[in-house]
Design brief:
Two copies of one chain form a homodimer. Chain A is α/β, with parallel strands linked by helices and about 350 residues long. In chain A, about 40% of the residues lie in helices and about 15% in strands. Chain A contains twelve helices and twelve strands. The termini of chain A are far apart. At the A-B interface, helix 4, helix 5, strand 2 and helix 11 of A face helix 4, helix 5, strand 2 and helix 11 of B. The structure holds a DNA duplex (30 and 30 nucleotides).
DNA sequence: TTTATTTACGGAAACGGTTGCGTGACGAGA
DNA sequence: TCTCGTCACGCAACCGTTTCCGTAAATAAA
């Protein structure tokens, strides 16, 4: 354990604890020679102030929490990297909590954060979150929160998002322009605003091209990979199977690839695929995957920046600003236009 | 801020602070009816004990640190997930620190951890680490450490590793058995034991097949992606280019794919590729990538388990045990055997 | 010379929970 | 009736830092 503390420094220097404390914080109340003596000894003894004593006294922990559904996913991993970069630059520490898409875990985590362990929270909701009382309670404890990507519409807080509606529209339109007549949409937890926005973009794009929305073409996937596989398999095995698939998340696109391989469907000849995704290997897939790529790293940085802006102001000035970072459409082979006569 | 504390509970109940504290910790010294009254009110007032006060007094923070080079990488992401799962199951909190492969950052992080902020550290070295004084200092502060994957041989501490030597051997042998005559090895920071072990496996496999080690076939890559690309490009552009490449990390394999595409080299006909990798999309690549997959999630869980075993014992019983979790060879198309006459 | 002001530092009370020790009440055994 | 032990709880010190005061000495102003 770290045993060198202020008292020991003070004794050694024949100073009081308060003087040493002030000297280390470079207070103007302490003379330059005294400060120098303190600095020197602190360095020599490798003094590290006890963060818990400091936090207890100051009611500030210089720690933030990041609460996300998963980490084994390029989007969230990059977001964490952005957050950590900003946080450490500001001298803050980052606690990480994974909900595993389980609302019960999200509630447990939010409840434990009420203890004041962190100065602020950066969060992306889990898919099964409906009731948001646990988040309101956090808010009532005056713990600043910032949402990113999977934002909570019911809470007044800064939010960092992408243009999900437009991206959903663009993705669908891209499939239609590439020659698709029947476009399916694979979605996740519809309680998430990103899901409904992406879906609305999908629906509106269809309407724009005078196409009806076929409820059978909207597949609601969940956290059970095997179940998702079955649903996608069923979708693509059907007589009137779609000739284009718009996946709202990466893992569903991966499943589509597997199902197509299983069923002997060719991408893009038989089915075209587009997906929200931050896969680094999108361009190396067989065929390369057309993606809607979110600026994950920048979203993380932005979320952290917004949080620190609130933490550093005494009064809350920006309670509900939204930052919109646009996603990019990256066209690749999985949506390549195929001339009328199949060349195979 | 969280304002309900023990004193308020005590006042409300006409009890002393110490009695309330003991009741909440379910001490046998407190009568059942009193405990019940305390529990009820604590629940009603949504009491959350201040973790910093507790940590200060008990010299235990129930917090661990995870220090890794990067997170946007399936291996480390999965490891984090494993660690977080175990940690939260034990009621611990997880701080995350990214070194970005910069030894200066690793030193800064290690130094800040001397403050006693965490009860223990789980670590994977950054590639540029040579001097390990910062780690020794942590150790001298009696902060238990556990290494995983990129372990530090100079420090006596539990280590969770994979069979890097054997895997390097198997990977190389697999290329040779698939028909390769000139096998190159792409490696990273040779100061890392995993790198030298994998390389030794490579060298010994060549020797086993009566092949000389050609120094030009061992390419030392770094953190500069552009520079790596150039080196790989140079390797594969040469007159006597290799017909097989064993990449020690995932990102280098991805670069090989890009270079081959650029140079018009066919995988596996012209060049076969194998790599250490945890890519979920390995089987979907064009062509699918033969990998050595490490059990990342289990390694994270194991590292956390070892750490908690040390944290929960009063006396250190297992100072330097090593856990070896074997990697799996997953054969795919990038190393497919091609019959003598090219069919293209 | 006296008084006001600044400079440089010490004393001590917080912060909130934990824990060693002390103690009154009560029942049991002698 | 007296003693002893157990039960159930209170008192207060303690963890290490911060910060509100207070104050002696030195300097400036009157």
């Amino acid at each position: 354990m770290n045993s060198v503390n202020l008292k020991q420094l003070a004794q050694e220097l024949n100073l009081s604890v308060s003087t040493v404390s002030r000297a280390l914080r470079d207070s103007w109340e302490i003379s330059t020679p005294t400060k120098q003596r303190v600095f020197d000894l602190a360095k020599k003894m490798n003094f590290q102030p006890n963060p818990y004593a400091s936090s207890l006294r100051k009611h500030r922990s210089r720690t933030i929490a990041v609460v996300i559904p998963e980490v084994a996913n390029n989007f969230f991993a990059l977001a964490i990297k952005g957050i950590e970069t900003v946080a450490r630059g500001k001298g803050y520490h980052v606690l990480i909590y994974l909900t595993n898409e389980e609302v019960a875990e999200e509630v447990a985590i939010a409840t434990s954060l009420q203890s004041g362990r962190v100065d602020g929270v950066i969060m992306s909701l889990c898919g099964s979150t409906q009731d948001t009382r646990h988040l309101l309670e956090l808010q009532q404890r005056n713990i600043p929160m910032v949402f990113f990507d999977r934002v909570c519409e019911g809470i007044t807080a800064p939010k960092v998002m992408t243009n999900d509606y437009e991206s959903g529209f663009v993705a669908t339109e891209h499939l239609l322009k590439s020659g698709c007549k029947r476009v399916a949409h694979l979605t996740i937890a519809m309680s998430l605003s990103i899901s409904s926005k992406r879906q609305q973009g999908y629906i509106d794009a269809l309407r724009r091209y005078d196409l009806q929305t076929d409820r059978d073409l909207i597949v609601h996937c969940g956290n059970d990979d095997a179940a998702n596989y079955r649903m996608i398999n069923e979708l693509l095995s059907a007589e009137d199977r779609p000739d284009g698939v718009f996946a709202s998340v990466e893992k569903l696109a991966v499943q589509v690839y597997h199902v197509c391989r299983e069923l002997g469907l060719r991408i893009p000849e038989d089915v075209k695929v587009i997906s929200f995704s931050n896969l680094v290997t999108a361009s190396l897939l067989n065929p390369s995957l057309t993606t809607i790529a979110q600026p994950a790293y920048d979203m993380g940085k932005e979320a952290a920046t917004l949080l620190f802006r609130r933490l550093e102001k005494k009064y809350i000035v920006v309670p509900d600003d939204r930052v919109m970072l646009p996603a990019r459409l990256e066209v690749r082979d999985s949506t390549a236009f195929i001339s009328a006569v199949p060349c195979h």
